[in-house]
Amino acid sequence: MNDHQPAVLPAQRLAAEAPALPVAIVGAGACGLVAATVLRDAGIDCVLLERDARPAGSTALSSGFIPAAGTRAQRACGIEDSPERFARDIQAKAKGHAAPHLVRAYTEAIAPALDHLEQRHGIAFELLDGFLYPGHGVRRMHAVRERTGAALMAQLERAATGAGAWLVGDATVRELYVDDQRRIQGVGYRRPDGTLEQLRCQQLLLACNGFGGHAAMVAQLLPAMRDATFAGHAGNDGSAIRWGQALGARLADLGGYQGHGSWVVPHGILMTWAVMAEGGVQLNRLGRRFHDETHGYSEAAVEVLRQPDGIAWNVFDDHLLALARGFPDFQQAEAAGAVRSAPDRAALAALIGCPVEALDPALDRFTPPFHAVKVTGALFHTQGGLDIDAQCRVLDQQGRPFPNLLAAGGTARGVSGDAVWGYLSGNGLLSAVAGGWIAARTAITTGGCA
Questions:
Q1: What is the number of H-type helices and E-type strands within the chain?
Q2: Does the entry feature the keyword Flavoprotein, yes or no (predicted)?
Q3: Residue 394 and residue 402: Cα distance in Å, rounded?
Q4: Fewest 10 Å CB contacts: which of 102, 187, 343, 401?
Q5: What's the gap between Cα 14 and its chain centre?
């Protein structure tokens, strides 16, 4: 096998003099950073191996909104919520297809995780106000003040490194070393100049990637997204799945993913779905509304791609424009010139390129002027991967956990079931943050590394 491809190699290939740490974490996204923070809070040494020079990943490309039930922030706003209610919302969206053990584990873990990050590490989470994302019964989206994924990542990195976690950038893990008892003994990672460095570990957490950036895997496993724009991070190259296959790990929910029906073209910017959730409509180039926007932004990606040229127009009025301007992603789109305005129906029809009489009656809900943004459907990240138990331990084909291999975040199956319509807003960061929290606690309590 090419040395630069993901590989599982015998432990004998790991140099005896390679440095050793109790826990190695592959990937310094939200999942890895949360896990590292929790490990260091417990006094466990760990290292984050990150392929980029600085942590970014899928989280930095997202809005950074984390759904959680029962947090301090919710209580401060007088909102009554519970993990059980949150779990019901997740399963309702996934039509009962989400893994029950993970739904329960993540909905129970996410509030303690956020409250811990706030109280011990000073990450102040605000509860988003003013609207509900589709499928959520109460307001439970939490964000840092800046309301961006990049800002969330900056604060998580500060927490992890401030707690004493080692962060090694420009380190692309390509090799796992395993012994005859299926125990991971260490990893090998490539440097930018091509050299290979090795590290021994007592426990390994895969918090690295999905497969959204691997065109062949997308074409095979997610045919509806075969020709979609990939708006996720390039690091989602399917390495974890290929390691899992080589190890004999079980895979699950590979048909699940998060799409988005509001990727601004040609600018390549995400437009907030809050506009659609609060009454905006999507029209195709024929001027017709083609789906129910309140069902969610993930499945909207497929609906948009089915339209002529795979294009739609987000149409809204002044009231929704004011709402949209509260979101940094929309501010960026507007600054780039993506938001077009039309004083009347005739001007809107000319903008879209359809006869005025073809415009959908759904526009009757608006008072001119109209505002419109040209969008397509995009793939953001996958929701299937290595099968794990409620402690984030990777399972083999018989459902048995590997001795010291953990996985969470984009590497593992999530809580969206096996189809695009199962994705409830925020499921990706729920799995990342709650999964990182749980995986770290598993390493602490069962890994023999305390």
A1: 14, 21
A2: yes
A3: 6
A4: 343
A5: 32
122-163: pLDDT as tens digits: 999 999 987 788 899 999 999 999 999 999 999 999 999 999
Q: Where are the beta strands (DSSP E) in 308-447?
A: 311-316, 340-342, 370-382, 385-386, 393-395, 401-407
- Domains annotated for the chain, with CATH where assigned, are 7-256+383-446 (3.50.50.60), 257-380 (3.90.700.10)
Residue 38 makes CB contacts below 8 A (sequence gap 6+) with 116, 436, 437, 440, 441, 444
Tokens of residue 246, six digits:
């080589």
Strand-pair category, 7-10 with 172-178: parallel
For residue 70, the SS3 value is coil
In angstroms, the CA 448 to CA 442 distance is 10
Three-state DSSP class for 267?
Answer: coil
Look at residues 346, 329, 408, 383 and name the one whose alpha carbon lies nearest to residue 64. 329
Structural contact between residues 64 and 149, judged by C-beta atoms closer than 8 angstroms: yes
SS3 call for 414: coil
Token pair, residue 146, equals 């800046």
**314: number of Cβ within 10 Å:** 28
Residue 412 has pLDDT above 80, yes or no: yes
Exposed/middle/buried for residue 266 (C-beta within 10 Å: 0-12, 13-18, 19+)? exposed
Residue 448 predicted with pLDDT over 70:
no
Residue 247: how many other CB atoms lie within 10 Å: 17
Of the candidates 131, 181, 114, 145, the residue with the CA atom closest to the CA atom of residue 429: 114
3-state secondary structure string, 349-372?
HHHHCCCHHHCCHHHHHCCCCEEE
